[in-house]
């Protein structure tokens, strides 16, 4: 396992990380790598390592993915207008 990775008692993999604001987050997957099989009765999806790659890319690009998921259209528009003025 890599740094930040763990496997829970139910078999699901977890990756813990801190965003650029220092807030801690976790993502979960039944698959560690894309070739892993999903346990019977569980839904597939993106592997944990693929999620980690996307998270690292977003952090390098300074994207605040959790903040943007919670934004309303109005707050997004207000932020866009503020940035456009500069």
UniProtKB/TrEMBL annotation:
The record's annotation in Pfam families points to: Integrase_DNA
For molecular function, the Gene Ontology terms on record are: DNA binding; integrase activity
Q: What name goes with this protein?
A: Protein containing Integrase, Tn916-type
InterPro entries membership: DNA-bd_dom_sf, Integrase_Tn916-type_DNA-bd_N
Q: Which positions fall inside the Integrase Tn916-type N-terminal DNA binding domain?
A: 1-59
């Amino acid at each position: 396992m890599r740094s930040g990775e763990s496997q829970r008692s139910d078999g699901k993999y977890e990756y813990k990380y801190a965003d650029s604001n220092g807030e801690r987050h976790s993502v979960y997957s039944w698959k560690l790598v894309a070739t892993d099989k999903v346990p019977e009765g569980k839904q597939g999806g993106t592997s944990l390592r693929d999620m980690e790659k996307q998270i690292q890319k977003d952090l390098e690009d300074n994207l605040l993915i959790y903040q943007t998921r919670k934004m309303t259209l109005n707050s997004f528009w207000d932020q866009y207008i503020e940035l456009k003025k500069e």
